[in-house]
Amino acid sequence: MIDGLALTYLPDGLGSASDFEFEWGGVAFMQRVWEAEVEPGVWRVDLQVQVMRGDRLADREALRGFWVEYHEKDGDWSGEPFGDDGFAGPREVALLIEPGLAAEVRDPFERRGMDEIERTARGLRLIEL
Hints:
Blueprint: E1 5-7, E2 16-24, E3 27-39, E4 42-53, H1 60-70, E5 80-82, E6 86-88, E7 92-98, E8 101-106, H2 114-122, E9 124-126
Antiparallel strand pairs: 1-9, 2-3, 3-4, 4-8, 5-6, 6-7, 7-8
C-alpha cells in the first residue's frame, strides 16, 4: 500500500524500496521508488509510483495540465489515452483515481518497459479507510 492505494501488481525483480513525501505546486506527493545496483556503486531506479493529492487535480484535463507543468513537457503535449481518466507518455502512466487524487507509475530509465508500467497502473486500487 501507498497513501491509500493498494499496489496489486508489481514487476518481478525490483530493487529496494524507499518512500518520500513532498509537495510541489500545491499538490502533496507520496512517492515510492525501487532502485537496484546495476554495477558496484551505480544505482538506477527500477520503478516509481507517486500518489498525488490536491484540489488542482479536479479532472483528467487538470491532471494533464499539472503533469505537463511538473515534468516540464511542452504545453501542447497530450499523451496517449490510458483508460477513461488517464494518459501515457513514453515511460509513464498518469491516472485520475477520483477528483483530487491521482497516481503516476513511471520507469525513468526504461528498465521495465511500458507493458509493466501499464500493468502496474491497472492494478492500483483505492482502499476504503
